[in-house]
Amino acid sequence: xxxxVTLTINPAIDIFVNVGHVEPTRKLRCSSPKRDPGGGGINxxxxxxxxxSDVAAIYPIGGAIGKLLQRLVEREGxxxxxxxxxxxxxxxxxAYEKDSGEQYRFVLPGSALHRAEWEACLDKLASLTDKxxxxxxxxxVPPGVPADFFxxxxxxxxxxxxxxxxxxxxxxxxxxxxxxxxxxxxxxVELADLVGMPLDSDAERIAAxxxxxxxxxxxxxxxxxxEQGALLVTATQAWRARPMRIEVVSTVGAGDSFLGGLVAxxxxxxxxxEAFRVAMAAxxxxxxxxxxxxxHEEDVKQLLSKVEIFELEAVAV
Length: 317
Known about the structure:
The protein has a single domain, classed as Ribokinase (UDP-N-acetylmuramoyl-L-alanine:D-glutamate ligase, 3-Layer(aba) Sandwich), CATH 3.40.1190. Helix content is 37%, strand content 24%. It is built from ten helices and 14 strands. The strands form two sheets. The protein has a ten-stranded mixed sheet, sandwiched between helices. It has a four-stranded mixed sheet with strand order 3-2-6-7. Helix 4 links the parallel strand 8 and strand 9 (163-167). It is globular and about 55 Å long.
């Protein structure tokens, strides 16, 4: 059994094109499209595999697009544990406007799944014969799937004896925290929505993270802050990653690359601060890549020595 198993209930094919100028009505002549496998858990699996982890990915597929998705995932050397869906797998579309340097992202919701279809993904997880070290459930929840889907996944993962890592938002995030997880990775907007207040300072952000950790809802919170860096917080410790001065080409996939790097390093036995360093390098490497591309191992290695991590004042238990 792979050390890491990811679960993606709303997978996609990510399409990326270049276009000279975006304007209404007129036909916009684009470059040839680049297609990548996508969806939160699939992206995490791709990054963790690139960084040396043995990974398997659970996800539903439907129609011709679903078959293409499976081919693209397996082409990268990742084992696919797929379940059938009666609906065509969704596509997302990103266009890079060369005149302005801006990106336009069109993210589709995914079609509604029948109960038997989303339950099949949970059954696939529950039926693993050997326990993985980590189960990572990541991404959005499509129509027809209950908000507690990831919470159910956590229960199955715990029954396997695996550590649980979650990256989602809204009602799905709230439900999974009620179950209690090993690690959760919100961004600043998601955490602010969860606690119902703006988090304008590191002190407020750490307090919000620590409230989750101290309450047993998450043993650790990795809070990504975009160009402001990131925080990693437990009930008694907190680490800060300084922002890195890099040329931003595309922000697509940065969060998934961060999480993939973090889980790959933790799975390899690295201590929390060192895993945080790898995560930061992976997230920054992703924004250096064009379009919907994720981080690459050689870029992560080059950035590792440049990542600045420092521990904030420890809290007594």
